[in-house]
Design brief:
Residues about 265-270 have low confidence and may be disordered. The protein folds into 2 domains: about 5-90 and about 175-275, P-loop containing nucleotide triphosphate hydrolases (Rossmann fold, 3-Layer(aba) Sandwich); about 105-170, no CATH class. It contains 12 helices and 12 strands. The strands form 2 sheets. It has an 8-stranded mixed β-sheet with strand order 6-7-8-3-9-10-12-11, with helices on both faces. It has a 4-stranded antiparallel β-sheet with strand order 2-1-4-5, with helices on one face. The longest helix has 14 residues, at about 185-200. The protein is an alpha/beta fold and about 325 residues long.
C-alpha cells in the first residue's frame, strides 16, 4: 500500500542557553494510507516535536536536515500559506491536554463555528458538528444542542475529548494525529477516548503518540519506539511487544510489565541527554550489550523479517542494512 506519510532523516534542533538540543535527530518514519501507527517512548524523546514539525509549528526549533513527504508533497520549507491549507484540512491534531485545549471564554458551538470559518467548511448551521458529536456518543440532538451552548468547564473530561475529536474530524482530514490521548484521564474517560479514536480510524489514517502501551495495542497494528530523537525499532505491535529486538525496546517493555502496564510517564527512564554530542549510538551508555563500536559509530537501520531496528548488534551479525 502507498505511504501517506514518509519522514526521512529528520533533524530538528533547538538552540538553548545550555547548548544545542537535538530533539529529532535522524528520524525515519512511514505511515501507509488508511493505516494506524503508534509511537512510543519516554517523555522528552522528541515525540511531540515530531507532531508539531509535521504541521510546521516546531518554532523556535529549526529543521536542519531531512524530508517530510505527505501525499507525495514535501512539507519542509513549504510556504506558510500552503501549510495553512494543510493544517486542519489534511492533517488534524487532537492536542495532548483536553482540559486546556479549548478556549474557556467561548461556548463550544462558537469555537466550532470559528473552526468551520477558518477551514472554509460550508456553513451547515453546525449540522456536521452535531452529527459528529452524536456519532461519538454524546446522545441525541437535544443533548448535543446543550453541549454546543456550554462552556468547556461545564463539560466532563470525556465530553471535552469528544468535542476536540469532532473538531479535528470536521474537515475529514487524511491524517488524524492524537498526542498523548489518555494522559491524566481516569479509567472511564480513558476507555471513552480509546473508543473515540478507534471509531475515528475507520475514517482517516491515525498517528497516536503515547507511552500507554495497552492503548497503542488497542488502536495501532504498527508500533514505532523512539529514543533520543530517533525511531530505534519499528514492527507489528504484537511482535514488538512479544519479541522486542532493540535493547532499549526490551528494557521499555520490561518496565511496562513491571508497572502492570499502567499509563505512567517514563521521564528519566534510561534517559539520554539530548544536549550531548552526536557520536555513536545514543543508547550506548545504558546498553548492557554495548561494545566499542557503539560508542564511536551511529548505527544504521537494519531490516528484519518482523520489522526494522537501529542497532549495531544486527550489523555485527552480518545482517544487511535497509
Amino acid at each position: 500500500m502507498k505511504n501517506l506519510l514518509e519522514v526521512s532523516n529528520l533533524h530538528v534542533y533547538f538552540e538553548t542557553p545550555a547548548g544545542l538540543v537535538r530533539a529529532n535527530n535522524g528520524l525515519d518514519l512511514q505511515l501507509e494510507a488508511g493505516g494506524s501507527l503508534g509511537i512510543m517512548g519516554e517523555s522528552g524523546c522528541g515525540k511531540t516535536v515530531l507532531v508539531y514539525t509535521l504541521l510546521g509549528l516546531q518554532q523556535p526549533g529549526k529543521i536542519m536536515n531531512g524530508s517530510i513527504l505527505f501525499k507525495g508533497r514535501e512539507l519542509v520549507n513549504l510556504p506558510e500559506a500552503e501549510l495553512n491549507n494543510i493544517r486542519g484540512r489534511q492533517i488534524a491534531l487532537i492536542p495532548q491536554n483536553q482540559s486546556t485545549a479549548l478556549n474557556p471564554l467561548l461556548k463550544v458551538g462558537e469555537q466550532i463555528s470559528e473552526i468551520e470559518t477558518a477551514l472554509k467548511i460550508p456553513d451547515t448551521g453546525l449540522d456536521n458538528a452535531k452529527h459528529l458529536l452524536a456519532e461519538l456518543g454524546l446522545g441525541d440532538i437535544h443533548s448535543v444542542e446543550h453541549i454546543l451552548k456550554s462552556y468547556p468547564h461545564q463539560l466532563s473530561g470525556g465530553m471535552r475529548q469528544r468535542v476536540l475529536t469532532a473538531m479535528a474530524l470536521l474537515a475529514e482530514p487524511d491524517l488524524l494525529v492524537a498526542d498523548e490521548p489518555t494522559t491524566a484521564l481516569d479509567a472511564s474517560t480513558r476507555t471513552t477516548a480509546l473508543n473515540i479514536l478507534k471509531k475515528s480510524s475507520s475514517k482517516t489514517s491515525l498517528l497516536v503518540i503515547s507511552h500507554d502501551l495497552p492503548a497503542l495495542k488497542t488502536l495501532c497494528p504498527k508500533l514505532a519506539v523512539m529514543y533520543a530523537g530517533r525511531v530505534v525499532e519499528y514492527s507489528d505491535t504484537e511482535s514488538l511487544m512479544e519479541n522486542p529486538r532493540h535493547p532499549y525496546s526490551r528494557m521499555l517493555m520490561k518496565y511496562q510489565q513491571s508497572a502492570g502496564f499502567l499509563n505512567m510517564p517514563l521521564t528519566g527512564f534510561e534517559s539520554r541527554d539530548l544536549l550531548g554530542d552526536d557520536k555513536g549510538c545514543s543508547f550506548a551508555l545504558f546498553c548492557p550489550q554495548a561494545t566499542a563500536i557503539c560508542l564511536k559509530e551511529i548505527p544504521q537501520e537494519v531490516c528484519l523479517e518482523s520489522g526494522r531496528v537501529v542497532c549495531h548488534l544486527y550489523t555485527r551479525n552480518g545482517v544487511q542494512t535497509c
